[in-house]
């Protein structure tokens, strides 16, 4: 009887080992597609993160350039206005008082009125040679 218990024990250990080995092999073969899918998802995530970073960089560059262009446009507008003011003063014999560099600075730096009306633009009328104030666009 001792021998049969010994063989029974060896058989049980061998069966347990074979079952364990078979379970590991089956687990790995079935895990393969899931592992591949997980790797594909990780790669897709990395790609989307990189695309998102590039998009954010592009947006930042765009708005930086927009700010630079608006600053240049403002400076050019100011130069044109000052040129027109100087020409109006010279060509109209000083009759235009509202179109001066000082009025420009004052007008550009004041806030719009409480009613939400557009800012007033001080400009000479092309038809009259006297001072005109409070033209609205």
How would you summarize this macromolecular structure in one to three sentences?
The protein is mostly helical. It has helices at 2-91, 101-109.
Strand residue content: under 5%
Rg, nearest Å: 41 Å
Mean pLDDT: 75
Distance between the termini: 114 Å
The description of the largest β-sheet is:
none
- Per DSSP E runs of 2 or more residues, the count of β-strands stands at 0
- Tally of separate helices: 2
* Amount of helix: over 70%
Q: How would you spell out the order of helices and strands?
A: HH
Structural class: mainly alpha
**Low-pLDDT sequence parts:** 114-137
Net shape: rod-shaped
Describe the overall structure.
This protein has 137 residues and is mainly α. The protein has a domain at 61-111 and 118-137. The chain is built from two helices and no strands. The protein is rod-shaped and about 130 Å long. The termini are far apart. 4% of the residues are buried.
Layout of SSEs?
Elements: H1 2-91, H2 101-109
Primary descriptors:
mainly alpha; rod-shaped; 72% helix; 137 residues; disordered C terminus
